[in-house]
Amino acid sequence: MTGTQKILELNAFDMKQGAAGLAPVTEALIRRRRATFGPTSMLFYKRPLHVVRAEGVWLYEADGTRCLDAYNNVPSIGHCHPAVTAAVAKQMAILNTHTRYLHDGVYAYAERLLGTMPGAISNIVFTCTGSESADLALRIARTVTGRAGLIATENAYHGNTTAVTQVSPSSASTEEQPPNVMLIPAPDTYRGGADALGPRFAKDVQHAIATLKDRGFAPAALIADTIFSSDGIFPGDAGFLADAVDAVRDAGGLFIADEVQPGFARTGEAMWGFMRHGIVPDVAVMGKPMGNGFPMGGVAIRPDLLAAFGSENGYFNTFGGNPVAAAAGMAVLDTIAAERLQENARETGAYLRDGIVALGSPVIGDVRGTGLYIGVELVHDCESRTPDRNAAERLVNAMRERNVLIGTAGKFGNVLKIRPPLAFRREHADIFLEAFAAALTAATP
Question: Is the pLDDT of residue 251 over 80?
Answer without folding.
Answer: yes
